[in-house]
Write a sequence for this structure.
């Protein structure tokens, strides 16, 4: 793994080490690139040609040309495209997040082209992504939505070179609830809010971000009297001491959340704890599954949907947005229902449908635990990725540059 060396008292001294072992078969090499100090990624563009030169010198020193180069993100894609051309070896690109998509979202939020350019060097980033897509033998994505919608906005869009390999996820912390009585520490916190904490739990875990669409979920619950009678709603939206001290975005979301709860008079049937620990998160999924509840992800946009996999590993059925990653996760895990995130009534009815049908709930719970481990392990991801490497190294009649 080649990365940039950083010699700066503000960061850990390990970032200055020229090399570091990851395992018996993997190691990290840090090469000098531009100033010694830490730089934001947006400030690295003038120094990337220097990084490529240092990478070539490293390859010359070890005396072996790589069989394949994998560049992650736009800046590494730019360097990898150059190295691939010089060395004559195949190049795989993973863009992760894309400049054109980010620019469109920032413009939608009302930011000006000039501000976006100044802060993010967005045109330089998009240019590097175009170069990467033009050069790459393979482009690896996490979801089909990235292929069909995000990459499709690029001039050098070549879908035949793209492969969807779902990310592996460490689900070791997420397991089904015990058959015995289960009373996790977080339950004491929830009991402060709930009149009847033994009711089934409708659980949402998300950042206090407008795109997570939590207000619509609260309204959907509030406007479905059957749902209010049969289940509690639990919303975990980060940790907070004082809402007034939060950044503008989360502050606005949480203030609106509290006003909506008050408007519908949901006291006694909705919990929104101020704090939780990382250990509480698996317990929340397990407790919701124990009480035959449902997990809900109503986000307006969801590129992947990690929480849906955590719910699946816990045996908890889900209701999720029909945008992006959830479509593919639910197709693989078969543990829930897709909804239109703008349709309040539809969200409420989807949750109600799962809660009311005990047989369907059990089937979804079983499918969830079986299928999530079949589709979303790191070993499965690695096998598919190595299969792609074998194919492109076999197909490409490349002649290694010798030094």
């Amino acid at each position: 793994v080649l990365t940039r060396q950083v010699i700066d008292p503000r960061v850990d001294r390990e970032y200055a080490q020229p090399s570091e072992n990851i395992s018996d078969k993997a190691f990290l090499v840090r090469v000098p690139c531009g100033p010694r100090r830490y730089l934001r990624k947006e400030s690295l563009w003038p120094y990337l040609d220097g990084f490529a030169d240092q990478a070539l010198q490293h390859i010359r020193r070890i005396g072996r040309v790589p069989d394949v180069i994998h560049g992650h993100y736009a800046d590494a894609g730019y360097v990898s495209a150059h190295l691939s051309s010089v060395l004559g070896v195949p190049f795989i690109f993973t863009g992760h997040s894309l400049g054109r998509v980010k620019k469109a979202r920032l413009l939608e939020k009302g930011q000006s082209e000039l501000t976006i350019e100044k802060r993010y060097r967005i045109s330089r980033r998009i240019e590097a992504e175009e170069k990467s897509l033009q050069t790459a033998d393979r482009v690896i994505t996490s979801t089909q939505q990235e292929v069909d919608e995000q990459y499709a906005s690029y001039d050098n869009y070549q879908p035949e070179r793209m492969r969807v390999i779902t990310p592996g996820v460490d689900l070791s912390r997420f397991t089904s609830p015990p058959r015995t009585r289960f009373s996790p520490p977080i339950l004491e916190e929830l009991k402060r809010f709930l009149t009847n904490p033994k009711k089934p739990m409708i659980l949402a875990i998300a950042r206090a971000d407008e795109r997570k669409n939590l207000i619509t979920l609260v309204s959907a619950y509030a406007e479905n009297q059957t749902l209010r009678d049969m289940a509690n709603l639990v919303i975990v939206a980060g940790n907070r001491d004082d809402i007034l001290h939060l950044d503008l975005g989360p502050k606005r979301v949480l203030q609106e959340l509290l006003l909506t709860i008050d408007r519908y008079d949901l006291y006694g049937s909705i919990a929104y704890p101020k704090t939780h620990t990382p250990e509480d998160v698996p317990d929340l999924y397990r407790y919701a599954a124990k009480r035959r509840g449902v997990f809900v992800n109503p986000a307006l946009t969801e590129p992947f949907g990690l929480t849906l996999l955590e719910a699946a590993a816990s045996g908890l059925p889900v209701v999720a947005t029909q945008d992006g990653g959830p479509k593919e996760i639910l197709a693989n895990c078969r543990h829930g229902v897709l909804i239109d995130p703008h349709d309040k009534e539809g969200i409420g009815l989807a949750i109600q449908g799962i809660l009311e049908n005990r047989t369907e709930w059990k089937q979804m719970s079983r499918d969830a635990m079986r299928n999530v481990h079949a589709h979303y392990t790191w070993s499965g991801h690695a096998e598919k990725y190595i299969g792609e490497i074998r194919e492109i190294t076999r197909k490409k009649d490349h002649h290694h540059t010798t030094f």
User: Anything to note?
Assistant: The CA atoms of residues 31 and 58 lie 8 Å apart.
